[in-house]
Amino acid sequence: MSSLKSIKEPIKDEIKEFEKYFRNSMRSKVPLLDIITNYIIRRKGKQIRPVFVFLSAKLHGGITQSTFNAATLVELMHTATLVHDDVVDESYLRRGFFSINALWKNKISVLVGDYLLSKGLLLAVDKEEYQILKIVSVAVKQLAEGELLQLEKARNLNTDEEVYFEIIRKKTAALLAACTAAGAKSAKADDETVEKMRLFGEYIGIAFQIKDDLFDYQSVNDTGKPSGNDIQEKKMTLPLIYTLNHASKGKKREIKRIISRHHKNNKKVHELIDFVNKNGGIQYAEQRMIEYRDKSLEILDEFADNEAKASLIELVKFTIDRKK
User: Residue 108 maps to which CATH number?
Assistant: First the structure.
C-alpha cells in the first residue's frame, strides 16, 4: 500500500501552501480564539479531505485559487462540526489529544464551532465562491440529518440495512463527496463531471465508513480485544445489522437485549462481537466495502490517466486498507 506521503507527491507544494492559507483563514483579533485555533492547527490529522479536493482539481484541469478556497471552506466546516460533536458526545479526546471542550469547557467550544462555521461562510461570500458554498453547505446539512436519523433509529434498535446506508451516506460520505465535487468545480469542470466526482467521493466515503465500523470488531485495544465502542454506544453498524437479520428469533431477542440493557457489560459485548465474527457479519461488511471501492474506481476509469488520477486510485486503496 502506498504511503500518504507518496499519494500527496503530485500536490505536495500546494498542500504546504494550503496549510498557511488555512491558518490565516482562522485568524482572529480575540486572543483566546487565536490560542484555540492554533491548538486546533497543531493537532491536525492526515488532511485527507483537502487532499481529495486538490487531487480532484488536478485531475480535471488544474489547481486554481478557487481550489484553495474550496479546501479551506471544507476544512473550516468540517472542523466546526468536530468541535460541536465533541460537546454533544461529551468526548474529551480527539486523535489522542484533549478536545476543545476538555480544555475550555462546552460554552467556549460551541462558540468556537460557530466562529469556524461563520469564517467558512464569509470566506465563500468574500471570494464569491457561491457554487462551491452550495456544494459544501448541502453536505453539512446532510451530516446533521444523518446524525439525527442515527439517534432516532438507535432508540428502538430498528436500523435496517437501507437505513444504515442512508445514515452513513449523509454522516460520512456527503463531506467526502463535497470534497471531490468542489475540487472538480474549482478546476472549472462541467456539471456532468462534477456530478461524477461527487458520486466518486460518495462511494469512497461509504467504503471508508464501513472500514471504520469493522475496526470495532477486529482491531484490538490495550486488553488485546476489539474495542466494542459502537455496541457500547448502541450504534447499529453493518456487521451487526447483517448478523441480526440472519439470526433466529430467540437470538435476535438476546442480541437486542445485550445492546439495550447490557451494552456497558464488557463480557456480554465481547460475546456479541464473537457471535458477529462467527456468523458472517464481518465477511459481509467487507464484501460491501469492496463493492463501493470498486464502484468509485470505475468512475475514475472514465478519466484520462495522469499523476493525480494515479494518486486518487492509491488514496482510495489507502482509505480502506488503513490499519486505524
Answer: 1.10.600.10
